[in-house]
Write a structure and sequence with these properties.
The complex is a heterodimer. By secondary structure, chain A is mostly helical. Chain A is 73% helix and 1% strand. Chain A has one domain. By secondary structure, chain B is mainly α. Chain B has one domain. The chains are: A mainly alpha, B mainly alpha.
């Protein structure tokens, strides 16, 4: 058991190394990709700032709090991209028959798909989110104790697992329908963009949906309530403690779904 | 002359029929548009929550603004996107177009007209008719206001088209277009007033925006539609759009001329 795990890890790091090397091949493209993503997110943050210039607050949230909320979501998303973003392309691997190859390799197919790409472009998002969080932290005059740093860490890891789980779930659907990319753009992308704003501005139905069905609320909104000490919301702040366990459970369920799909999988044939 | 016109018109017809064949595409675009409208509707509702008028704009005017803005953005989204133009340049598909007896930028415009009108008739028009009946936003009350709005929206469309194609053609010189693309999308989304009207911008930023071509894409037609831009003020706004269209189109022709030469050089 341990031996096969170690072997899996060895394969994983080898493949990741190859993936990074291929992406570093074009230096200019590599740098522009990172800068491009950082700029895209900075653009969204600037739009938020312009929006709040005349209005000051949105349901009691001022710009710096909004930036914190946004930064927290981008931080876990960027880590998620590194490992899981290419899962949305699962349909491509299945339709083109590439996936059949993964099944005969001496590594678990799931780990193999994870290892296919190590997206260095995500460093752009990472860069943006860290800068945004530092600025927000300073502007809000926060001074966290160790316990709050632990909650923050839990939110980042849990958030990565929740969003990664979502991508795994979407890719698992492709085992039956051979379609996943479209599902990502129509289902997950809007839900993700929703989370850039305080959840309380949306209808109750949506609040419940992203709390109990697709737990995006745990990625940034609920931990932010706790970390920014916002007590006058319709959610009690202690919800934010649960991001890590919710993430672990949600990811486990999604992984289970994926393996059921894998067992069901019959090659697309060509 | 008539013959040329008829040839371009044929592209519009074919592209209209092609859109009819790929309906799933159209449906997912509608879904995206409605969700985006829902999100921005909630955001503006929350921003106005507990406030009367901000910068002399009432919530009702703002709601009307975001509704018409999303309808226009829906129509624009049926055109050829930037990444598709970039793909054609990268793969060399565009070289074949040069061998054919038509003007490529014009052909693109007419092709987009086909997919756009299909999308407008089958999706945007029925959808937004229902939404408009439901929300009762401000709409143009006179024929002249409708006329000016349509004229302004058409000018806005042409400005966006010229800019998007120009940015796409930059791919001829840049292997990786990452940065260029992001500048384009950022400008289109912020300075065009697509989701945040220029009324709410800080003064210095509003003056920058007024010096750029992007405001002519959504902001001017939207403002005419909701009646915030009316009377004497419309004329300079339209004139500004016309001037920017001439500049952007001129830029497109210039870049296209340079790009065509570039292909010849590469083809050896």
């Amino acid at each position: 058991m341990l031996k096969s795990c170690l072997r899996g890890l060895k394969f994983y790091f080898y493949m990741v190394g190859v993936s990074i090397k291929t992406q570093l091949q074009y230096r200019y493209a590599f740098v522009m990709n990172i800068l491009g993503w950082a700029m895209t997110y900075a653009g969204t943050a600037i739009t938020m700032w312009v929006m709040l210039y005349s209005f000051q607050t949105i349901r009691g949230w001022m710009f710096w709090e909004l930036l914190f909320l946004f930064g927290l979501s981008v931080l876990s998303w960027s880590i998620c991209i590194i490992f899981f973003f290419h899962f949305r392309n699962m349909d491509e691997y299945i339709v083109e028959g590439t996936f059949d190859r993964f099944l005969v390799r001496p590594i678990h197919p799931f780990l193999h798909v994870v290892a296919l790409k190590f997206d260095v472009g995500a460093f752009g998002q990472l860069l943006f989110s860290i800068v945004a969080l530092i600025i927000a932290y300073a502007q809000l005059g926060l001074n966290w104790q160790l316990s709050q740093w632990l909650i923050f860490l839990g939110a980042v890891i849990g958030g990565t697992l929740i969003q990664g789980g979502m991508l795994v779930l979407i890719s698992g659907v492709a085992f039956w329908t051979t379609r996943s990319e479209r599902l990502f753009w129509t289902l997950m992308w809007p839900a993700k963009n929703l989370m850039n704003y305080p959840l309380t501005i949306f209808p109750r139905v949506i609040q419940l949906l992203v709390t109990f069905v697709l737990p995006f609320a745990f990625v940034n909104f609920l931990p932010a309530l706790l970390l920014l000490d916002k007590t006058k919301e319709s959610f009690a702040p202690y919800w934010g403690f649960f991001t890590l366990p919710v993430g672990v459970i949600f990811f486990a369920l999604c992984f289970k779904f994926w393996t059921i799909g894998l067992n069901h999988y019959k090659s697309a044939g060509s | 002359m008539i013959k040329t016109y008829r040839m371009y018109w044929e592209f519009t017809r074919k592209s209209f029929q092609r859109s009819a064949a790929y309906r799933v595409d159209s449906w997912s675009r509608v879904l995206g548009n409605v969700m985006s409208l829902g999100i921005w509707g909630c955001i503006w509702f929350a921003l106005y929550y507990g406030k009367g008028s901000v910068e002399n704009i009432s919530f009702h005017s703002m709601l009307s603004y975001i509704l018409i803005s999303m309808a226009l953005q829906g129509i624009h989204s049926a055109g050829t996107p930037l990444w598709e133009i970039q793909r054609r340049v990268r793969t060399g598909d565009i070289a074949i177009e040069l061998l054919r007896p038509y003007d490529y930028p014009l052909r693109m415009l007419f092709t987009d007209l086909g997919s756009m009108s299909f999308y407008f008739i089958t999706a945007i028009f029925p959808l937004y008719t229902v939404i408009f009946i439901f929300f009762q936003p401000n709409i143009p009350l006179s024929a002249s206001q409708w006329g000016l709005f349509i004229l302004s929206a058409a000018l806005g469309y042409l400005i966006r088209y010229s800019l998007e194609l120009t940015f796409g053609l930059f791919t001829f010189w840049l292997v990786e277009t990452g940065g260029v693309e992001d500048i384009f999308y950022f400008s289109i989304s912020l300075f065009s007033g697509s989701v945040v009207p220029l009324w709410f911008f800080p003064d210095w930023l509003a003056s920058i925006a007024s010096l750029l071509p992007f405001q002519g894409i959504y902001f001017v037609p939207n403002a005419i539609f909701v009646g915030e831009l009316s009377g004497q003020a419309i004329l300079p706004a339209l004139l500004n759009q016309v001037i920017w269209l001439v500049i952007c189109y001129g830029l497109l022709r210039f870049v296209w001329a340079k790009a065509s030469q570039k292909i010849v050089v590469q083809g050896g």
